Amino acid sequence: MAEARGSLLDLTVRDLLDVMAARTPAPGGGGAAALATAMAAALTGMASRFGDGAAATRSDDLRHRAAALADADAIAYGTFLAAVRLPHDDPGRPVAVAEARRGAIGVPAEVGELAAEVAELAAGLARHGNQQLRGDAVAAVRIAAAAARTAADLVAANVHGEEGVADLERVRLLATAAGDHVTELDSD
Q: What is the dihedral of CA 30, 67, 149, 15, to 10 degrees?
């Protein structure tokens, strides 16, 4: 996992792909969604800079925040796996699992929130920005929308009972909104 090897952000793209393809539980879908969100934000920032630049600073902030979540997701999921692997008779297991579950829900929920915001920014640029960069802005919308949907699916996978239901509902709504931007751009 990321903590044993350093940050995913320090790997070459080739090494990152190899690490993601390895038979390990993390990095996985959460890390991929975070990195996809960061790439979509990077495209959004670039498209903004070729226009009025108004969305560039916010895009950069979203890119940095999303990129950091790739490592955070691997750590959160690793912590969750360690907690559920505790012996069932361990008196600290229920608390450890509940705390770890919150992290395993919280990180992808944040990825979903960031991805939805990136999709919204990029959709605005696709409509009103430099039309020479429309294709890049649309690509950012599509990538961010896919990341938001992935994040919602990962939150759903970690919800147990009532724990995380509110996060799931919020992230599903955000993923739907991000997907709506794709649908709207397809009809333009």
A: -50
Q: Which residues contact 124 (CB under 8 A, 6 or more apart)?
A: 55
Written as one string, the DSSP assignment of 108-157 is HHHHHHHHHHHHHHHHHHHHHS-GGGHHHHHHHHHHHHHHHHHHHHHHHH
**Cβ contacts of residue 176 below 8 Å, gap of 6+?**
none
Contact status, residue 181 vs residue 120, Cβ threshold 8 Å: yes
126-161, pLDDT tens digit by residue?
Answer: 999 999 999 999 999 999 999 999 999 999 999 988
- C-alpha distances out from residue 66 to 15, 20, 51, 135, 152, Å: 20, 17, 23, 22, 15
Cβ partners under 8 Å of residue 96, min gap 6: 83, 86, 90
CA separation for the pair 45, 172 (Å, rounded): 25
User: What does the buried/exposed string (b/e) look like for 66-96 if buried means 16 or more CB atoms within 10 Å of the residue's CB?
Assistant: bbbbbbbbbebbbbbeebeeeeeeeeeeeeb
| pTM for the model | 0.92
